[in-house]
Design goal:
- With 164 residues, this protein is of the alpha+beta class.
- It is 32% helix and 28% strand.
- The longest helix is centred in the last third of the chain and has 15 residues.
């Protein structure tokens, strides 16, 4: 997310409808404040070497982004719709959601590179979508870097479509 918003040529805005969203598989838990230090390291690890690396910059930048998200920089942080998945007690993925311009926004989704390809990103988004539907929301939006093909494939499989 960083300082760029939806309206940049480098990003696409995607949206998905939440009707009929099924519950996620087991293993996804609500976000907790004490996750932040581990999530900062995880976010930096996940973004390093990707088209989104500049959004974070380094581990301190990742920590800053987490605090900005929680403090409302990208809209009201929706703690009850944000999730973490862990392996052996350590977070290996997270999905952080805000209410941006009156719409739920998937502000950040990241998983540990060592755990990539195991369905964690998909499960995290499903957890978010299910929680938001249960809370009465009907859509989820996000901004994705146009060059991030892996993320775009995931969002396409989850029913997201481009709106801008």
């Amino acid at each position: 997310m960083s300082s760029e918003t939806f309206d940049t040529p480098a990003r696409s805005r995607l949206q998905a409808f939440l009707g009929g969203t099924s519950p996620p598989p087991p293993g996804f838990r609500p976000f907790a404040d004490d996750d932040v230090p581990a999530l900062a390291a995880l976010m930096w690890d996940a973004y390093r070497g990707t088209p989104d690396e500049a959004d974070v910059g380094d581990i301190q930048g990742a920590l800053r982004e987490l605090h900005l998200t929680m403090d409302g920089e990208y809209g009201t942080f929706l703690r009850e719709a944000s999730f973490v998945t862990a392996h052996e007690g350590r977070p290996v993925g997270a999905a952080l959601v805000t209410l941006y311009q009156d719409l739920p926004l998937l502000a950040f989704l990241f998983t540990a590179p060592a755990h990539a390809g195991r369905g964690l990103g998909r499960g995290l988004v499903q957890a978010v979508m299910h929680a938001l539907a249960e809370q009465g929301h009907d859509t989820l939006t996000l901004a994705v870097t146009r060059r991030n093909r892996r993320a775009r494939r995931l969002y396409d499989r989850l029913g997201f479509f481009e709106v801008a």
